[in-house]
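pasting for ref
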Amino acid sequence: MPITVDKLVNDDRFSGENVLQFILYLPFGIVLLAIRIILALILWIASILLPNTQTVRQLLSTFACCTFGVYVKLKGSKDPRCSVMVANCVSCLDALAASHVLGTVSLKKWKVPPFFASTLGIKNAAQFVRKQHFADGPNKSMLLQPEGGATNGKGLLKFTEWPVQIGNRIQPVTISKY
């Protein structure tokens, strides 16, 4: 049975049926939001001050996953011969999850300050054009998300066409949310 487009995106996060639960959760949610904003600011400052080494990036990536509530579980293994990974898009934190577990870098899709983007595993597209990515770390895979937009994980959108030829081995990756 095919999935229709309206089933790929959740339009209503709050259906209105659980107003009492929402009101009871609201104070806790505001405190949690404030804590996450403070931790994100600390991560941002740390990404500016600390040296840009693999160990520091991995440590900041771990703290970023904890701060944003990203739990990553890897099923299967990464093929070391693949330099390009193609994945679906579930949220704006996909690059963080893939960078944390697989050690990949992703093209910059979200408006993130450049000094904080490397912590999240995001690089500017111009760096790939200059092949600086492969000079920085030839063993790092590139994560491409050709869907162009996030879905709820129940299906795939049509892939956008990329104006590049990829001659390397490609490994498919599925990102799902729980």
